[in-house]
Write a structure and sequence with these properties.
Length: about 300
């Protein structure tokens, strides 16, 4: 009995005449490697999502074994909740505001560092270093700067200009602005790295040809650099926007959602609703709304950016 090897590139099995093939094609066997990832996704992503959706239809307090079905009452309650409305507006401000600042600063830093020849690696490491710091640690550092008593900023203004102390974090507008600034400064390094990689991928020949045609720096930047950075724009914007919309740590450390729950994001409001108010069902409804918001924004933004890339 003679064994033969099949010539098909997608088959790794040995064919023995008179016997049924023992193994499937290589592509089918490779599909089994997806199983561990699918199990992890089902356990840590799909199950919590479905469980949260189920809890959002109950009045569970988060502790007692009993719970009753209330249907869409929790979602209808959201429509008249002023605290939720404020948190939703703040969430959009944190997401959009942080994204805009990070794109402008990240692109500017990338353009500058792309031209630096000496010490460029050191400067990149310094700018990227805050990304590696825990948001809780970063929030604590800035809390020590902006707090009313013994705050570094108030002490410095008082010593240099004799200014009165300012309760920076006790003002809702100032608190929201500070949170946006802190989040932007911490994660601007991500945008810088993405744009720097995009700039270094642009062929030098394009700039040389444009310079021979008499194009200035701004014309080259507008007509060559920006269009070719569209993939980098798409990646950076989506990552920064998702991070800003689910912002939690910095808010919790800096303001705790105060004063008067005016700096809450939806993420911090979920925690406050669950633990402080013992309303797990309502907190689950907040979580479902946040999930839908992030998914919808990401889907629409990806579609717009991909369409723009195709047009270019």
């Amino acid at each position: 009995m003679t064994a033969t090897l099949t010539d098909s590139t997608d088959t790794a099995a040995i064919v023995v005449p008179g016997r049924r093939r023992r193994y499937g094609t290589a592509s089918r066997r490779l599909n089994w490697f997806y199983v561990p990832a699918l199990i992890l996704f089902a356990v840590f992503a799909l199950y919590p999502l479905l469980s949260g959706m189920s809890l959002s239809l109950t009045n569970w307090n988060g502790y007692s074994p009993g719970r009753s079905f209330v249907g869409l009452d929790n979602y209808l309650r959201l429509l008249g909740d002023d605290v939720f409305r404020t948190a939703l507006i703040n969430t959009l401000i944190y997401g959009v505001g942080s994204t805009l600042i990070q794109q402008m600063l990240g692109l500017g830093l990338a353009v500058v560092l792309d031209r630096v020849t000496r010490g460029a690696a050191f400067l990149r490491a310094i700018i990227y270093l805050p990304v590696m710091v825990s948001p809780v640690v970063m929030g604590t550092m800035y809390y020590l700067i902006f707090r009313y008593r013994n705050g570094a900023l108030n002490d410095a203004l008082g010593a240099l200009f004799g200014a009165e102390k300012v309760a920076w974090l006790a003002n809702s507008a100032a608190g929201v602005a500070i949170i946006v600034a802190v989040n932007s400064l911490q994660f601007v390094g991500i945008s810088m790295v993405i744009y720097l990689a995009g700039l270094q991928a642009v062929p030098v020949e394009y700039y040389e040809a444009a310079q021979l045609d008499g194009a200035g720096w701004w014309q080259r930047f507008r007509s060559i650099t920006l269009p070719l950075l569209q993939p980098a724009f798409a990646t950076s914007i989506v990552l920064n926007l998702i991070g800003g919309l689910k912002l939690f740590d910095v808010i919790e450390v800096l303001t705790g959602g105060g004063p008067g729950k005016t700096t809450h994001s939806v993420s911090t409001l979920i925690t406050d609703t669950y633990f402080a108010n013992q309303a797990a069902g309502y907190a689950s409804a907040l979580g479902v709304v946040l999930f839908i918001l992030i998914a919808a924004v990401t889907f629409v933004l990806n579609g717009l950016l991909n369409r723009k890339r195709v047009e270019l």
